[in-house]
Amino acid sequence: MAAPAGSLVAAVLAHSGRLDKEDLGTRIGRLSRRVEELKGEVCNMINKKYNEFLPSMQSAEELVSQVEGLSSNIDLLKAGIENEVTRDLNVAVAEFTELKQQLERDTLVLSVLKKLQEFDIAIKEYNTALLEKKYVAAAQQLETARSNLKMLESRKGFELKILKALGTELTVQTQNMLYHLGEEWQKLAVWKLPPSKESSSLESVVHSELHLHTVPSKEEEIAGPPVASVLQAFAVLGELHTKLKIFGQLLLKYILKPLISYPSLQPCTEEQSDVFILRFKSKESSLDHSSPVEVFDKIRLVFEVLHKYLLNVPVEQPVEDKKGCGVTLAELLGDMIWEELSDCLIQNCLVNSIPTNSSKLEQYIEVIKSTEEFEKALKNMQFLKGDTTDLLKYARNVNSHFANKKCQDVIVAARNLMTSEIHNTVKIIPDSCVALPRLPDPGAGDRSKMPKASEVLHNDMGNLENKTKLSQYTFSLPTCRISSSVEKLMELAYQTLLEATSSTDQCCIQLFYSVRNIFQLFYDVVPTYHKENLQKLPQLAAIHHNNCMYIAHHLLTLGHQFRYRLTNILCDGAATFVDLVPGFRRLGMECFLAQMRVQKGEILERLSSARNFSNMDDEENYCAANKAIRQVLHQLKRLGKVWQDVLPVNVYCKAMGTLLNTALTEIVTRIAALEDISAEDADRLYSLCRTMVEEGPQVFTPLPEDDKNKKYQEEVPVYVQKWMTFKELMIILQANLQEIVDQWADGKGPLAAEFSAAEVKSLIRALFQNTERRAAALAKIK
């Protein structure tokens, strides 16, 4: 407290600098007293607080001492627990665990013994039931024994050697049971089949029989049919599916499929006192395929018999197969064989019944109704489920199948025609037309009913008509020969399009594009299939050329003729074949031009043996040249006969003119290239050329009548480009220098029109000796 008092005194002194010493002492005394008072108050306050705190501190000290006592007691208890209680607890847990394990072992042993007992009881009851022919009860006991054995085998860590022996015993008893059931089944359903090697023929199928010993006696009607007991036992053992599958395959192979395949086969039934017999009898039939109505009636009869005497039995499938619980034997058999039976009915019956003509489609309603009734009957007998099957869907979709079948038949027929012989021909004249029934008039509202612009103009401005008219044959195909198969092919195309006009829209479209496919197939098949003959035989190449031109000629207007009679989808410009025309023309021309190249090659090859027409004064050389000329003429005459009355006259003349021109051009070229021609050589060359000029026109015989061919033989210069050149060459070979100069006529004469100045000078130098007259003549050739 001294420090604050000193500070206070110092502060007072600082503020009382002007006071005198007396006042200062007084004040200091007063302040000192005040300080003492304050010190007393503070001491009193401290004592008061201490007196209040002391009892609390004493109480806390007592609590601390109590806590320390409790803590020591806890430590003693903890030590006691750890030393004594824990040891006793561990001992108790160990004893409990041991007792628990012993209980589990005893329980397991007890359950195993119980299962073994149940297995033994099941086997004993099985044996008893089997002796009494209670097959269902016996099968159930076997299944009970099997389930007990499976449970024993599933226990891990508990393996018994006896289980293997029990499994063997169970297998033996199961096979024994199946053997007895098999014997019973064979007695119930007896098949009498032909030898396996002859099972496919009608004669052997007639001898197939099925004997059902399931006709119940009076006692069995009360106790239940034995077939039910046998089949139910098979079901319990899980073997029903196997037995039924074998039965179904035999049923398909020896009864159902033969009834579908052989129209003359009829099912025959016979019921005796203890057996029902299903056999066949054969009657004469002129049909290649059975009608669906008859086939459905036959198969329905078979199923009715089977349903009555064999398959109308409810069976319980094994527990694992919960889906099959509570179904009839007929339903199980139907699931196994229906798909194969349905496919057989479609492929061997319904497919053949599809009409080949759209007019018969309405009659097919009877087949659809018969199919519906057939399926309904099978559903009533529980062979089929409630869903619509593929069989009925196929029958109802007859329009599509008709179109597909028609298209397929058309393509097959077309291909057969394409692969037939080309050389069988018919003559086509401008008046020829495809044998086609009159097309129906377009229906009401058809665009073709609208007045045409040409008719309006004709009515309003008839006086403006041009007096000069085109010939009726202007746009006709010229007279020629084509393959009879191609004529039939075109008739097939017209008939198919006519069929399309009275068909449904979808069928119409398919038939239209089938016709297009015919021509596209021709384009691909014929050149490949007949390739070798077309290359080797000139006549076939010419016929193929005509065939292609004939098809192209009809394709120009084929689409237009049917345009307004097809479905609306095809009426807007799609119904056309014009796009195929260039391809067919090119196909015919390429084939014929290839043959022309072959013939040209042969002509040039023969002329190559003429020894360049040089040194004709040598007898051997002359004979070789003469032989070559004769061979060429013989080749041309042979071609003229081969192509006679085959090619159109204009094509014939152009072709023969081209080939003769090839020979003349080669001869002119060879002679013009000679450097020295003696007088004797010139005479012999002239003789050879005269042979060509005299006999060359005779190769032009386009028509069989000789008197009609003179016209074309006189027009040889029109078709042979080098004909006048060749004749001018003959003139040169026999002319003197003055005559040659006169023929040249300062480049304006006939010689100048065929030869160049250089060629004429070369011939003059080869024919005449080097004299002043020759020089003068050469000077005039400019």
Automatic annotation (TrEMBL):
One of its GO terms (cellular component) is nucleus. It is found in: Chromosome, Centromere, Kinetochore; Cytoplasm, Cytoskeleton, Spindle; Endoplasmic reticulum membrane. The keyword Cytoplasm applies. InterPro entries: Zw10/DSL1_C_sf, ZW10_C, ZW10_C_2, Zw10_middle, Zw10_N. Interacts with NBAS and KNTC1/ROD; the interactions are mutually exclusive and indicative for its association in two different vesicle tethering complexes. Component of the RZZ complex composed of KNTC1/ROD, ZW10 and ZWILCH. Component of the NRZ complex composed of NBAS, ZW10 and RINT1/TIP20L; NRZ associates with SNAREs STX18, USE1L, BNIP1/SEC20L and SEC22B (the assembly has been described as syntaxin 18 complex). Interacts directly with RINT1/TIP20L bound to BNIP1/SEC20L. Interacts with C19orf25 and ZWINT. Interacts with ZFYVE1. Belongs to the ZW10 family. This is Centromere/kinetochore protein zw10 homolog. It comes from Strigops habroptila (Kakapo). The lineage of its organism: Eukaryota, Metazoa, Chordata, Craniata, Vertebrata.
